[in-house]
Specification:
By secondary structure, this protein is an all-alpha fold. It has three helices and no strands. It is elongated and about 45 Å long.
Length: 63
């Protein structure tokens, strides 16, 4: 862990990385579900989707 983050954690705060969504935020999952279908149908980034599929977990296998 980076040294500057420990004092934040000791204060009960959680460091935030700018530009990265807070996946624990209320509404994050619903918004991700809302955006997924149009993205999956887009013809513009087949290579990107292929990469994501290759590195993503199969949630059905997780128990």
């Amino acid at each position: 862990m980076r040294p500057g983050r420990n004092p934040l954690r000791e204060q009960g705060l959680r460091p935030v990385t700018p530009g990265a969504p807070d996946v624990r935020a209320p509404g994050f999952a619903a918004e991700a579900r809302r955006q997924s279908p149009p993205v999956s149908r887009s013809p513009h980034d087949e290579e990107g989707r292929t990469f994501i599929d290759a590195v993503s977990l199969d949630w059905a296998d997780e128990d």
